[in-house]
Amino acid sequence: MTGPADAGRCRYGAARSPREARSTPPAADPGAVWALRRIAEKSGLERVRVVAWRDLEHPEAGGSELHAHRLASLWAAAGIGVEIRTSEVPGAERVVDRAGYRVVRRGGRYGVFARAGVEGLLRRRRRGEALVEIWNGMPFWSPLWSRAPHVVFLHHVHAEMWRMALPPRLARAGELIERRVAPPLYRSTRVITLSQSSRAEIVDMLGLRAGKVTVIPPGVERRFSPGPPDARSPYPLVVAVGRLVPVKRFDLLIRALTRVKASVPSLRAVIAGGGYDRPRLETLRRSLGATAWLSLPGHVGDDEIVGLYRRAWVAASVSQREGWGMTLTEAGACGTPAVASDIAGHRDAVVHGRSGLLAHGEEAIAAAITRMLGDPALRARLGAGALAYARRFTWEAAARATLEVLAEEAQVARGTYSLSPGADAASGVGSETGSGVGSETGSGAGTGAGSGPGPGAGAVA
89-94 — which CB contacts under 8 Å span 24+ positions? Predict the structure, then answer.
């Protein structure tokens, strides 16, 4: 999940991202909807306004936009009025209704931040309304203008991503804002991130208060599930899915796969997704003589993505920065183990040695993929582990845990919040063995009341 730093200076046209078509949510579980409605009623929440850089239908939309869409859809199903305020989508209407919530698009790629702030200053505070800011590289500065109870989603620190995609002056400005200017304004704001490893970086690199940062992992859609026994490719197949942008480091993956090909001659690989980095990757693919066995099909549809995961022997991601690594848990839900770069976010999406392998650098990535392809017993064990791990994550649980954090902030603003007995108010996250999911990595969510997603989330698990 990335932001302005990975957008670069080029647009890559109106083609849809692999995730954009996923706009029709599956039927929500009645128990989950009831739980969300009860949280809203108890806290007095009637409306949630979200400010975000991009909408799900934007050509450069990715995991962050899908995440916002899924939460908004479930909150809307529970009767909460939800509006997402984003930048304009080229060639699209400015106001659209989708899956029960409304999207309002005003302002350009960069102008949206100032415009949303001015609107916030002029907006009259409405009873029962709360705000969610999605800080995706460039912040919206909501602590300066929001009069409503609010929380901030910060999926990960952008760090070196600024220099990977922007000219030097803009990159330095982005780094300065992220590391020095913005953090002091957000130290009293409740922040939500996706993983314990991302939380550690947010605290260490940005200096935000640990007790204010809550971990709530994303969900996995139910469409991602194992295929029939004969679904696996008859030849070794490595699949990677994502936008073709520098932070995903698909150039590193292509070079690593070329190393693997030398040891596994029957190897085939697919890197699915579109993006402005495609010409560079195509040039690299040709220079390495990989055109016959490595495919770059561009944007693929929902059914095709599921089919790719089911056929793959290994799912790969070698990103430089991720808040989580949603493609890896999607593949895991199809019973496919992962090989991933050893970075924050991936360390929670993949349990090393249980659901996949983590490695650092081109040579180590190549060695891990080669090992996985050559060891059927290891693949079977990690595939089973990946499936079991992915089943812990649901969008219903993520929506509930996030709404609980927002409800706490609403109750604090009204002076009616009381801490539950035994709740850990200091850390703001679940314990290592977890009130939520993923106890192996300590990635359980927590809102101070042990109600994070996963087996500990009651009706929504």
Answer: 89/55, 89/57, 89/58, 89/59, 90/11, 90/14, 90/59, 91/14, 92/57
